[in-house]
Amino acid sequence: MNKKESITAILGVSLLVVLFVCHINLSANLRFNFELIHSLATTPKPDIFKRLAPRSNISGRNPTNSTRLPSSTSTKIRCSRSHKYYDFCFINGPTVLDPTTSTLFVMDSTGPTLVEKIKPYPRKHENSTMSGIKELTLTSGPPGPKCQVQHNAPAIVFSAGGYTGNFFHDFNDGFIPLYIIVNSILYDQDPVLVISKARDWWLQRYSDLLQVFSEHPIINLDNDTATHCFRSATVGLISHGFLTINPKLLKTPKTLPHFHAILGKAFGQTAQRFYRQRHHNERPRMVLISRTVGVGRAILNQEEAIEVADRIGFEVIVYEPSSRTDLHVAYDLLSNSHAVVGVHGAALTHLLFMRPGTVFMQIVPLGTKWLAKVCYENPGRAMGLEYIDYRITAEESSLVKTYGKDDIVVKNPAAKIGPNWSMEIMKIYLKEQNVRLDLDRFSWFLKAAYDKATKFMDKEG
User: Fold this and answer.
1) How far apart are alpha carbons 356 and 353 in whole angstroms?
2) What are the distances in angstroms from CA 143 to CA 95, 102, 149?
3) Where is pLDDT greater, at 83 or 68?
4) Can you tell me the distance from the alpha carbon of 453 to that of 312, in angstroms, rounded to the nearest whole number?
5) Burial level of 10, CB count in 10 A (0-12/13-18/19+)?
6) Angle subtended at Cα 346 by Cα 341 and Cα 351, rounded to the nearest 5 degrees
């Protein structure tokens, strides 16, 4: 193997492992074809497309402006394949969907037949993941079947397969990219959601959030047999990076705090408000996001850490989320707290539930500095949170007992990891490693967090 092939192989393995480790979208700093988005957002609509009346601004969209759908041209199907991690296609005219064949037909098509195939999930570089994603066909001919259900609305077609069920991916690969679509190409529209792998438990858990994006019944691509007609069809989702919304790429300058607002519409309106009622502004509330020892990166002296936080002045609530956690209760807790502390991991995606100004402390284990920054520090700062980085020392890592303080695993994690994140390396730093906090050192960080949280509580309640 020559030098060029070796470098390519190393980079390929590194990408796959980092994705598995962090459950993140490596599309950060990569852009969707802006020319396509711009043309879809600015080309006048043909008369056949009637603009929908605004829906009481339910998703926080500005009703004074509207993205216009493309006019009828000889190119009815347009796709962008330039992005490394996802594909995106658009049918700019009346469309018929046949769920039984997973095919979208252009109605009244003229010109040569054009056929495109797409798997609408943003992991196209991961062969093993994409093997479970249903492939869709978009075609301008021959003519499609007759329409059985007519929708006076555009369709958004995407997959809820892949890593769906992991809390990070539910938002990073699903709801934030969906929010981007709704606020760019389909701005001020009321789309119909057409979803593959829309499992019952997922639909139930996120039903209130899905209704924020669309008032129409969801079409399950896997068990619907009727043909459906739409004004147009958007196939695939757009990502701006790790839990990221780039306002420069949207019709209006939406950001993560705007996304937080729609989470409030979904999960904050019907909650019992237990935590808000319980809090009487006597002590700032700190939520400790807990991990179990078996999954790695657990705090081994968690009870002692809680006692320290209590002595400093916090009201401490331990939160251990699971797939069965009621998101209304979770939103109520996180949005009515003043500080949140947790070890790096997918549960820190709950930062999206926090009010701007909340203190957010991430405990960073050995070997996870870069992952912690791109996964949660950057989004936390974009959310307007008061971010505190607690990087553990070698003595606070359980790896000292396993390998010794002078081993390269502990002494120089960056050198140990190198450019090639193998499965063995991942197992060491993310599965085997737990944390035993230096309580004296940790208390100094908690005192800083307490001061910030107290000011936030005094100002916002």
Assistant:
1) 9
2) 11, 15, 17
3) 83
4) 12
5) middle
6) 50
